[in-house]
Amino acid sequence: MRAKKSLGQNFLVDDGVAERIVRALAPRADETVLEIGPGRGALTTRLSERAGRVVALELDRELAAALRVRFSTSARFTLIEGDALEVDFCAVVAPALQTRVVANLPYNIATAILQRLITARGCVTESILMLQREVVARLVAPPSTPERGFISVLVEAYCEAEALFDVAPAAFKPVPKVWSTVVRLRMREQGAPDAREATLLWPLVSAGFAQRRKTIFNNLRHAPADLLQRIEQVNGAHAALLAAEIDPQRRAETLTLTDWRRLARMIGQM
Ligand code: SAM
């Protein structure tokens, strides 16, 4: 079967790397593990030997059929043929109420899946993800570094993120152009923004990073209409920033998560 570029199919062929990923997860005999994009099963076999149950979600019909045959005798294995950008992660692992996720994700949909995993944090407690190295650098970037962006603030708000190890292109077939990094994302049990806070916080962070070279003040002045209306209600971006003790001349990447949350609280007062 030929690898499909459109589905980001770079299959892991290095057993040592597969073992390290599964060890990082350390599946337990009493849990359900969700694997996104099992492909040719490089991780799946190891997972199914150790986890209580494995739910594997694969979009490619041919690969899904092959996996179904291969694991047909395993009562602890469930294959779902579906799109990880649409499927409800909590629903597919039922009756389990919680799950941990492992995935070597196609690069083009990695951040979208990551956002979906955060949205599914009611049931997803931890994820071990293999992503493009540059993407992981952005996920774990602290304030005042060039990689800091919307996704870094989002991940920091909901997860404890830890880059585990790098993986060379030669570990895959076909060989990709880029290095990968395996990252652990553990959902925070406490202190993450609730739904109410999130409705203002994320549009605000997104607007703040709209044009990286501009100051936070200039970006907020040109925020989308809904947000701008809220900002005008607290006398405009300049006043809101000063009230939140943030120098309007700073750039978005210098703001800490605490700064963003203080600013959102300030704007949300009205
Ligand atoms: N886990 C395997 C491995 O490590 O060798 C395969 C990794 S490959 C980078 C990505 C896998 O995700 C492929 O099997 C591909 O078919 C699957 N995939 C791509 N898009 C998907 C989607 N939207 N939903 C579910 N699976 C998807």
Whole-Å distance between the termini? 59 Å
The side-by-side strand order for the widest beta sheet comes to: 4-3-2-5-6-9-7
Percent helix, as a range, is: 25-40%
Percent in strands: 15-25%
User: Which radius of gyration do the C-alpha atoms yield?
Assistant: 21 Å
Mean pLDDT: 96
Main sheet overview: 7 strands, mixed
Short description:
This protein is an alpha/beta fold and 270 residues long.
Could you characterize what this model shows?
By secondary structure, the chain is of the alpha/beta class. The chain is built from twelve helices and nine strands. The strands form two sheets. It has a seven-stranded mixed sheet with strand order 4-3-2-5-6-9-7, with helices on both faces. Helix 3 links the parallel strand 3 and strand 4. Helix 8 packs across helix 12. The radius of gyration is 21 Å and the shape is elongated. The protein starts with 10 loop residues before the first strand and ends with a helix. 39% of the residues are buried. The mean pLDDT is 96. Bound molecules: S-adenosylmethionine (SAM). S-adenosylmethionine binds next to strand 1 and strand 3.
Search tags:
about 270 residues, alpha/beta, seven-stranded mixed beta sheet, two-stranded antiparallel sheet, elongated, binds S-adenosylmethionine
